[in-house]
Amino acid sequence: MPAYIGGPCVLPLTKGADSLSFSNRLIWNVASSPPNDKLPENDFPFWVDVRDVARAHVLALITPDAKGQRFILGPNSVVYSDIADIVHKHFPGLLSPPKEKQTFTHYQIESENCRSILGITEWISFEKLVVDTVDQVLKAQTPHGPRGSQP
Fold first, then answer.
1. Is residue 150 assigned to a domain?
2. CA 45, 49, 53, 55 torsion: positive or negative?
3. How many helices (H) and strands (E) does the chain have?
4. Any alpha helices (H) in 1-125, and if so which ranges?
5. Rounded to the nearest 5 degrees, what angle is found at the Cα of 84, between the Cα atoms of 44 and 129?
6. Within a domain: residue 149?
7. Which residues is 40 bridged to in the sheet?
8. Smallest Cα–Cα separation from 137: which of 80, 102, 91?
9. Would residue 83 count as lying in a domain?
10. Number of domains in the chain
């Protein structure tokens, strides 16, 4: 039971940003927003990298104690201004300096069984999730990648 799922796509983005999933489009919309645009309102703060979702699926299939269990995958609690900060840090030419810092009061989720049953003790960072997503979209839009280098 993953939260928002972000991260790079296995299949090529043949239509650039138009090929993105709903969650990845949220990231791209922040990354490509005009300088004076207001950030989206926060609705759900939990994110997980698609590579961690794939790993959890495999572990759930091969771990006998996982039978009949539900696993909530949402290790990263973030707001849209966190995405803007990451994009500005790694792709400063893409997004102007970060917009307003958002706050969002939300509930917590319980995912202890991901550690205790599946053995997942480390997750891909949200920063890597955002960087890999934005980088893939930029490479799909330009033949030589975001920094002018060969793929």
1. no
2. negative
3. 5, 3
4. 22-31, 50-62, 80-90, 112-116
5. 70
6. no
7. none
8. 91
9. yes
10. 1
Please tell me whether residue 62 adopts helix, strand or coil conformation.
helix
Enclosing H/E stretch for 116: helix 112-116
Q: What is the pTM of this model?
A: 0.87
Q: Is 68 left (phi over 0), alpha (psi -120 to 50) or beta?
A: left
DSSP 64: G
Q: Which residue has the higher pLDDT, 109 or 61?
A: 61
**Encoded amino acid at 141, one letter:** Q
Which band of pLDDT confidence, cut at 50, 70 and 90, is reported for residue 108?
A: confident
Domain span at 24: 4-141
Q: Which helix (H) or strand (E) holds 81?
A: helix 80-90
- For 4, phi then psi, to 5°, come to -60, 135
Smallest Cα–Cα separation from 28: which of 131, 103, 113? Answer: 131
Q: Establish if 126 belongs to a structural domain.
A: yes
* Structure-token match 């990263």, residue found: 76
How do residues 15-62 score in pLDDT, each as one tens digit? Answer: 767 889 999 999 999 999 887 788 888 888 899 999 999 999 999 999
Q: Write the DSSP string, 123-135.
A: ---HHHHHHHHHH
Domain with residue 27: its CATH number is 3.40.50.720
